[in-house]
TrEMBL record:
Family: Belongs to the ribonucleoside diphosphate reductase class-2 family.
EC category name: oxidoreductase
Source species taxonomy: Bacteria, Bacillati, Bacillota, Clostridia, Lachnospirales
Transmembrane intervals: none
Protein name per Swiss-Prot or TrEMBL: ribonucleoside-diphosphate reductase
Molecular function per GO: nucleotide binding; ribonucleoside-diphosphate reductase activity, thioredoxin disulfide as acceptor
Keyword terms, alphabetized: DNA synthesis, Nucleotide-binding
Length: 80
């Protein structure tokens, strides 16, 4: 799935969900090292677990962050 982010430096998130597990997460733009780290940490993680851990994280003065955007993307994918 592709998700267009809102309010963060990265512009898009690509990911796959198989058997409620997250796979192949990649971000377009943003802080490359940190986003690679997040991608590796959530690989194989249960979707609901990732959402509960990432949802609501803020970046500086922004009301969202790349991890929060990933949580939103996952929620959207699950609700489709």
């Amino acid at each position: 799935m592709d998700y267009k982010t809102k309010g963060v430096c990265s512009q898009q998130i690509h990911f796959e969900i198989e058997d409620n597990k997250i796979h192949n997460v990649s971000f377009v733009g943003g802080c490359n090292g940190n986003l690679q780290g997040i991608s590796h940490l959530v690989e194989g993680m249960d979707v609901d677990e990732a959402i509960s851990r990432l949802e609501g994280i803020q970046c500086g003065f922004k009301t969202t962050s790349c991890p929060d955007q990933l949580a939103k993307a996952l929620k959207e994918a699950v609700n489709k």
